[in-house]
């Protein structure tokens, strides 16, 4: 009779560092998905808080900010600015201000036409055509309807009597389709269409008007997502986020566009030359996409409407908020590290996790099979799993409150072959 001794494989203890890169793969770093987090100083930091400004009239559903920083709000067919209120015949589509010799005048666009806003109420602007969007460019007010662009007389937004040196209209047929948004940017009027962009040079003299198509192969455009942000205009299509500089269109990389459901639309504004768009994620959650030259973030702030200007203002459940990147948010920073084997051997046991950074963290750990495990602790502390978690690959879901900073995860494990 012989006796065989069971032998357990020798396991080697290792420490593996996982450095996150927001939304995109970078050399030596792992692409992660995050909410309320932005890359700053080589780490992911909480961003996405808000501060309360004031309550708005019941039923408020949309905000409008004008070129001089005035804020208007809409509820149904009423328009409000502070204590002033205008009862309109239909819901306002857009509001803008026009500089004049006697101060700024305010205009509102309705489905049936253009109206000026005064102390006595809203007054229809004679001979102004109906439109779907408008903008001030150069010395004129422009209105778009379908593929037609109409313009006021120079320096006279309430003068629409057509003449050789006054108001008029031009037809701009294009394979891009109907005009959905007008933006004055860097000396040109940009016409954002269903599937293209037209750039119009429009000096004071109508004889100098010149229109040209910008090369475009980005899919179906979301006109309400376009906004001028410093040296570029940013917009969204069914295929992601794009930037226009001069006549060059390029994708905005590493902004988390693949997590957004573009079929739900997007509305955007510019605040402090930074781009913000109210979007819906593929999981149904409403968020705000933030894009700047140094990176992007998805803020876990559901917005009913946005207003731009010097700072971002957010309409949420009838209340007005301003973005406060360092303030408390509705929810904490969330960072999701994907399932990865780290290039190690098949059998391993995860013993502990440590966060390099600042703050207090709650970490969900899971292997490719089985239920997740949870650990809590502060940055720099070794958070041990009791008992160790067995698997061939691990994923991490990290949550942290305002003020947190996540530089990397350091995991302690044992590995070997069966």
Instruction: Please give the count of helices.
Output: 0
What's the alpha carbon Rg, rounded to whole Å? 27 Å
Structural class of the secondary structure composition?
mainly beta
The major pleated sheet works out as:
6 strands, antiparallel
Helix content: under 10%
Instruction: Write down the overall geometry.
Output: elongated
Cα distance spanning the termini: 27 Å
Number of strands: 40
Q: Multimeric state of these chains?
A: single chain
Q: What share of the residues does DSSP label as strand, in percent?
A: over 45%
Uncertain ranges: 1-6
Overall mean pLDDT stands at 92
Question: Brief description of this entry?
Answer:
The chain has strands at residues 12-18, 20-22, 30-35, 37-40, 43-46, 49-55, 62-65, 71-75, 78-81, 84-87, 94-100, 103-110, 113-118, 121-124, 133-137, 140-145, 148-151, 168-171, 179-185, 188-193, 197-201, 210-214, 221-229, 232-237, 240-245, 248-251, 267-271, 274-280, 286-292, 295-299, 305-307, 313-316, 319-324, 333-340, 347-358, 360-367, 373-378, 382-391, 394-400, 405-416. It is mostly beta strands and 418 residues long. The model is unreliable at 1-6 (pLDDT under 50).
Q: What would you say this structure looks like, in words?
A:
This protein has 418 residues and is mainly beta. The protein is built from no helices and 40 strands. The strands form 9 sheets. Strands 1, 4, 5, 35, 38 and 40 form a 6-stranded antiparallel beta sheet that branches. It is elongated, with a radius of gyration of 27 Å. Mean pLDDT is 92; it is low at 1-6.
């Amino acid at each position: 009779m012989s006796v065989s001794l069971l032998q357990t494989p020798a396991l080697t203890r290792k420490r593996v560092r996982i450095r996150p890169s927001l939304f995109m793969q970078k050399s030596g770093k792992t692409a992660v998905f995050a909410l309320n987090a932005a890359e700053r100083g080589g780490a992911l930091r909480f961003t996405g808080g808000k501060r309360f400004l004031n309550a708005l009239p019941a039923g408020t559903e949309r905000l409008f900010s004008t070129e001089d920083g005035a804020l208007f709000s809409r509820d149904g067919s009423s328009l409000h600015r502070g204590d002033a209120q205008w009862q309109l015949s239909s819901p306002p589509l857009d509001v803008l201000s026009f500089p004049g010799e006697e101060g700024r005048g305010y205009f509102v666009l309705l489905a049936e036409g253009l109206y000026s806003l005064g102390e006595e109420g809203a007054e229809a602007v004679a001979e102004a055509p109906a439109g779907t969007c408008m903008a001030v460019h150069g010395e004129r007010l422009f209105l778009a309807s379908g593929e037609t662009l109409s313009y006021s007389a120079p320096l006279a937004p309430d003068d629409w009597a057509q003449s050789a040196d006054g108001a008029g209209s031009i037809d701009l047929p294009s394979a891009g389709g109907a005009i959905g948004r007008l933006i004055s940017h860097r000396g040109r009027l940009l016409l954002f269409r269903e599937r293209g962009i037209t750039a119009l040079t429009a000096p004071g003299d109508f004889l100098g008007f010149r229109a040209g198509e910008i090369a475009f192969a980005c899919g179906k455009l979301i006109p309400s997502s376009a906004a001028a942000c410093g040296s570029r205009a940013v917009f969204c299509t069914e295929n992601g986020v794009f930037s226009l500089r001069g006549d060059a269109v390029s994708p905005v990389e590493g902004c988390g566009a693949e997590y957004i459901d573009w079929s739900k639309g997007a509305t955007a504004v510019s605040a402090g030359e930074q781009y913000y768009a109210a979007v819906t994620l593929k999981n149904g959650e409403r968020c705000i996409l933030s894009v700047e030259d140094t990176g992007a973030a998805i803020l876990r702030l559901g917005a009913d409407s946005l207003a731009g200007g010097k700072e971002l203002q957010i309409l949420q459940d009838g209340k007005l908020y301003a973005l406060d990147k360092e303030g408390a948010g509705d929810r904490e920073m969330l960072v999701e590290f994907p399932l990865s084997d780290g290039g190690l051997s098949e059998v391993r046991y995860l013993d502990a996790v440590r966060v390099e950074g600042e703050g207090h963290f709650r970490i969900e750990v899971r292997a490719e099979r089985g239920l997740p495990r949870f650990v809590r602790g502060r940055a720099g502390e070794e958070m041990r799993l009791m008992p160790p978690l067995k698997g061939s690959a691990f994923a991490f879901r990290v949550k942290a409150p305002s003020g947190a900073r996540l530089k990397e995860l350091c995991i302690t494990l044992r590995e070997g072959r069966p």
